[in-house]
UniProtKB/TrEMBL annotation:
Alphabetical keyword list: FAD, Flavoprotein, Oxidoreductase
GO molecular function: flavin adenine dinucleotide binding; oxidoreductase activity, acting on the CH-CH group of donors
Location of the Acyl-CoA dehydrogenase/oxidase C-terminal domain: 228-368
Organism, as annotated: Mycolicibacterium iranicum (Mycobacterium iranicum)
Superkingdom of origin: Bacteria
InterPro entries registered for this protein in UniProt: Acyl-CoA_Oxase/DH_mid-dom, Acyl-CoA_Oxase/DH_mid-dom_sf, AcylCo_DH-like_C, AcylCo_DH/oxidase_C, AcylCoA_DH/ox_N, AcylCoA_DH/ox_N_sf, AcylCoA_DH/oxidase_NM_dom_sf, Mycobact_Acyl-CoA_DH
Keyword Iron-sulfur: no
Protein's name according to its UniProt entry: Alkylation response protein AidB-like acyl-CoA dehydrogenase
Cofactor(s) it depends on: FAD
Residues covered by the Acyl-CoA dehydrogenase/oxidase N-terminal domain: 9-117
SUPFAM superfamilies according to UniProt: Acyl-CoA dehydrogenase C-terminal domain-like, Acyl-CoA dehydrogenase NM domain-like
Domain Acyl-CoA oxidase/dehydrogenase middle, residue spans: 121-216
Sequence similarity: Belongs to the acyl-CoA dehydrogenase family.
Amino acid sequence: MTDLFEPATFRTALRTWLDENDLTPPDDHSLQGHMQQFARVQRALYDGGWSRYGWPEEAGGLGGPAMLRAIVGEEVVGRRLAEPGPYSMLEVLTPTMIDYAQPELAAEMVPKLLSGEEQWCQGFSEPGSGSDLASLSTRAVQRGDTWVINGQKVWTSFAQFSHRCVLLTRTGDADTPDHQAITAFFVDVDTPGISVRPLRTMHDVDEFCEVYFDDVEVDSSRMLGKPGDGWQLAMDLLPYERSTCFWQRIAYLYSRFDGLVDEVRGRGQAIDVDMGEVYLALHTLRCRSRATQHRLAEGQKLGADTSIDKVLLAGAEQRLYDTVRDLLPGVIELDDTEWRTEYLYSRAATIYGGTAEIQRNIIARRLLDLGKE
Ligand SMILES: Cc1cc2nc3c(=O)[nH]c(=O)nc-3n(C[C@H](O)[C@H](O)[C@H](O)COP(=O)(O)OP(=O)(O)OC[C@H]3O[C@@H](n4cnc5c(N)ncnc54)[C@H](O)[C@@H]3O)c2cc1C
């Protein structure tokens, strides 16, 4: 019997399955279209078992190492069957949700996400709290078995399509130190008092939202961890955002690099040194990320070291699209092309999931021990 938990065997079997099951996206490049296609792909992967590998059995998965999930992401996103943005929410939110939720809650909810029945969002950032997340002010006050939440989140990706939100709130009193006063909840987005307002980005997509909480009542069984565990939850979540999640984005960037090579060749232009540099940046990133996937697979706890992955990803992504701009004159400035949308989105790579400046500070202080200034 073949061992499907062995990554090479798993990849071969998955590729065969993907070749035999046509999940080609329809010609609909709207965000709505991408979300529908993502749900369709997840449904098919779930029914075939693929999206359940690498997730714990207690949460509806089929077990096996996290690397299996990374392989599914690489194949699905690398083939452009699903877009990397919506796909990323699986990897960003689910591992930590499983670690902190009451087991019954994880067992009930995780299959809904893995099967494409639901989409979830991440309610961390606020108008005054991004890099300085510990200063967040959305407040949760206990009233018996219920917590009442008031405040506002911003930049909440895909909130308008989401059924649940992993939400950070402030609890405790004025004397509680910031990092011990943050508590996370798993909130139903259709709870009375929640309003979601999409925001248009510069690449002309309503990807982000403002989310308002007005006396929103959440049962204490929806708390993730204990009161005050929210900061640790956020710190545990970020390394996932930069490990299995990055692997699929890297696959996507490689597929776009191939697209650039085709287009440059199609115009009769030579493959030049700039493209060599892009390839090198992508390859460096992939090597680094591969080591990160292996550390995760060995059960190591990832932390500040993943800031290196983030810096490399942002650099490679922006270099790729800068090269598109230089080698395909006008496609970004003048034409309404996929390249234009992607170029504009790539500017966000040094912002989302922790800005480039903050990552460099972390590398300097925590990895290189260079001190505060
Ligand atoms: C595409 C995208 C998707 C996102 N999705 C989500 C989401 O789903 N959920 C969510 O909660 N958030 C999301 N965000 C928000 C993201 O987490 C924040 O934008 C990020 O944390 C930065 O916070 P900020 O925008 O408030 O910028 P600020 O923190 O105000 O930073 C502004 C500038 O100041 C610099 N800076 C700040 N502090 C320091 C410092 N101490 N030292 C040096 N430089 C500093 C920063 O590097 C940056 O250049 C998303 C953002 C983007 C771009």
